[in-house]
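Annotators were shown the component list below and the corresponding predicted structure, then asked to write short factual statements about the assembly.
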Amino acid sequence: MSGNGRSEVEEARAVLKGLMAPVQSGMERMRETVDQQLSEGSPAVRDMTGHVGRFRGKQLRPAMVLLAGEATGNTTDEHPALAAVVEMIHLATLVHDDILDGSKVRRRVACVNQRWDNQIAVLLGDFLYARAFALSSQLSSRLSNHVLAETTRRICVGEIDQSARRYDFELSQEDYEKIAGAKTASLYAAAAELGARYPGGNEVVGERMHTFGWNLGLAFQIVDDCLDLVGTEESIGKTVGADVDDGKVTLPVLKTYAGADEAMRAKIRDLYTMPGIENRLEALWDACDLRPGLDYALERARELIREAEGILSELPESNARSALEGLCSFVLHRSF
Amino acid sequence: MSGNGRSEVEEARAVLKGLMAPVQSGMERMRETVDQQLSEGSPAVRDMTGHVGRFRGKQLRPAMVLLAGEATGNTTDEHPALAAVVEMIHLATLVHDDILDGSKVRRRVACVNQRWDNQIAVLLGDFLYARAFALSSQLSSRLSNHVLAETTRRICVGEIDQSARRYDFELSQEDYEKIAGAKTASLYAAAAELGARYPGGNEVVGERMHTFGWNLGLAFQIVDDCLDLVGTEESIGKTVGADVDDGKVTLPVLKTYAGADEAMRAKIRDLYTMPGIENRLEALWDACDLRPGLDYALERARELIREAEGILSELPESNARSALEGLCSFVLHRSF
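Structure shown to annotators:
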């Protein structure tokens, strides 16, 4: 996970592109569908959806839909649209995640972009959700509506719970995983399940692939939380240390805190909460060694990935299965 | 529309309650369903959904579903749940409407409620949308998913367009009505249509009732825009003059502006935009006579209501039809 900057990221991107090769045409159709859904009559709407580009990322979730379908021998003409729905829901959550609360607006007041203010972000996210559900409603089977409305609800609950547990250093690992799972793993689980069983039937395979997606998604979130403590901004493409600034106590920090004496615990709490600290993450690294906590968290991610790989081994060998195995490895070793 | 304060509002509430009598038990079931949908396992979520109470209002939209069903002889066991979905979508839009942009946060910094910050409002609104679509997905017919996902998209587009046309005094009446229609009338139209034709069939009646709901909803919005210029805060229960503060140029102001000479036009633009004006609405009334513009807007609302009543006259006489006629009258004469 150590970053040598651009070249390593570029290499990782190339690996990722290779993994998506078995579903390349489906991914292309997925992207076309998303673009089409975002091209709306009104110039104001088009102007706004133009901003969605900056949230486009690795597209792992739609790839999961298509690869899970291929790997389980369950491919339909509607899979790319299904993948587009999943991607739009993900984009909506990213856009709404970007909304600033009062204190941040005040802190960043100098660089508030008038065109990209909170109301615009709220409306763009709502528009993406609405588009996703409208497209889902047009599919021939209702399974996607059922699964994705329920998943969206779980994501919201995860975000709400996370927000409620900010600055809570007594959070148990179980509760941390429940929140990270609801917030992140649930959409991976839904993507894998829908890929494997849409438009219906195949419930047993669907359930196994749901668990596969859940494990992979939870590992993804744990690694994400680790990268926020060790990554470089150039490599991960977003602000490092944001979790500490936001009061999110993630697994590596929880573990570090649990192993510390009372004086160190008080110090860690202070570094999260005391006003006027310029770089909280740097101060945290200066105060304590986060590496054992990081090692613990990464070992937990590896364990989840081993479980996910176990499920894959139940499937017949195929290019798609190999690609899913590659995704497992990517999640553990990614630096962005 | 002149307000004598509390007694008049109480009278209006009593009238409204009377109008809902033909669907009283359905409304009760609708409210139970909404409450049930908001009671979620996590304490943090329950804590948050407790805030929804302050957004509860006249519940005209769910009443429309039930009354349109009764009036067209199309009642099913699922109508109360359908009405609950419509109400939750409406609540979600209200919650998201309440999100402050950077400038407002700065202006209201002294009274920012930490518990009720922007992120909470975004998540609560998202949760309401997710709950609405999850419930809709459980209904036996997909019609509600189709109609309501599309309606939600239209509402977002209306809000986006409205935001883009702030401070635009060249807005035509046609564009104003397009925006107000998308933002407000579309959900009334969907409510009336779904009431009349859910779970399917009845397309001709559904279309007529869609138009009925559209006209009534557009009239509602026009009256709302008038109340923002003349109502008292006690009577309408929200801040008067908010549209002027937000740069929304509504029909009565557009009409006033169109009829003014260039000096007065410049004055009106200044009163909307110049920094440091304490009470923009008061300053606007001091500068020009808004009454002819208000009369024009209210005449347009009356015209829309006449069209809506014309559609009702095609239906057989019934208590529900009378109640819908009463709603038409209420929309024109309400003071809150």
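Statements collected:
1. Chain A has 17 helices and no strands.
2. Chain A touches chain B through 51 residues (CB under 8 Å).
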